[in-house]
Write a structure and sequence with these properties.
Immunoglobulin-like, 14 strands, C8orf32 fold, about 290 residues
């Protein structure tokens, strides 16, 4: 699949601010599952962008607006080709060998421990999470393929929470979302990640885009969030708990991290007494023939 993506974010301030420093994680990832054909980012006021790759392999564009201003606009235009048609297309590892496969994977790439051991308000300990959940907590059955257990977890998450647009804060505590039995895609991803990590499985957060043709939440198109877990034989497999789907070529990954804070599309700091009004985000995603 080939997609054209346009993403605009407008921040407005009631009083002038200055020395505005911004980081953007908006450029889609280039890996074995997707190719970036073109990518362009513009700002208003105009600024010179620099770039680096962060610890998680995300492209980060950053810039500064020193002069006083009351409005900041960032615009992305990118064309991406996605390649992962069938998420089940891999050579499975027998269940009795899966644990050894995972142990070897972590030993050969120690940074994977970040996706097993990390705990935060967004991805708390299983014990802390269990205090807010009334449903039976899912457990991994090592007698069957790990993917089967992860698919059961994928189906379990929507039984704990229902999708409610705007019901939780950005980077809000997962326990609060679970307690109110409602959240947004970030909360669904964090819940999946928290349980998978309690099983000792490397799991990470993904921010990106979902083809609007299969987005069933009814929310205005913005960025989407899902989880990925390391599956023996397959590598990283995406789980969209909001829609109870494995990710495929209808998903475009932009940034990954331990939780949503690591993969925020835009964040920054400035000098001034004003706080920004809620950002106005407009996303267009169109399939290219």
């Amino acid at each position: 699949m080939r997609y054209l993506i346009e993403h605009e974010t407008i921040l407005e301030y009631p009083q002038t601010v200055r020395e505005h420093h911004i980081e953007l994680r908006l450029a889609p990832r280039a890996d074995g599952h997707q190719q970036v054909i073109s990518c362009n980012i513009e700002t208003e006021p105009a600024a010179e962008l620099a770039r680096y790759t962060d610890y998680f392999g995300n492209r980060v564009d950053y810039f500064c607006v020193i002069a006083p201003h009351t409005r900041l606009v960032t615009r992305l235009k990118s064309e991406v080709e996605t390649l992962k048609e069938n998420p089940f297309s891999f050579e499975a590892v027998p269940p009795r060998e899966e644990q050894e496969w995972l142990i070897k994977a972590v030993r050969s790439a120690p940074p994977l421990n970040d996706f097993v051991l990390h705990r935060s308000l967004l991805t708390p300990t299983a014990m802390k999470l269990a205090e807010a959940i009334t449903q039976a907590f899912p457990r991994r059955d090592k007698e069957k393929p790990l993917l089967d257990s992860l698919l059961e977890l994928l189906a379990w998450v929507p039984t704990v929470m229902e999708y409610r647009s705007g019901s939780t804060e950005v980077h809000g505590a997962l326990v609060a979302a679970v307690a109110q039995k409602g959240g947004v895609c970030q909360d669904f991803a964090h819940l999946f990640i928290t349980v998978a990590r309690s099983w000792g499985i490397p799991a990470r957060y993904v921010m990106g885009y979902l083809d609007p043709g299969i987005n069933e939440t009814g929310e205005t198109l913005t960025t989407h969030a899902w989880a990925e877990a390391l599956v023996p034989g397959a590598g990283w497999v995406g789980f969209d708990a909001t829609h109870n789907l494995l990710t495929n070529d209808h998903f475009i990954a932009v940034a990954i991290g331990r939780d949503s804070y690591d993969a925020a599309p835009q964040r920054g700091s400035f000098k001034g007494d004003a706080s920004a009004t809620p950002p106005v985000v407009t996303v267009m995603m169109q399939e290219q023939k």
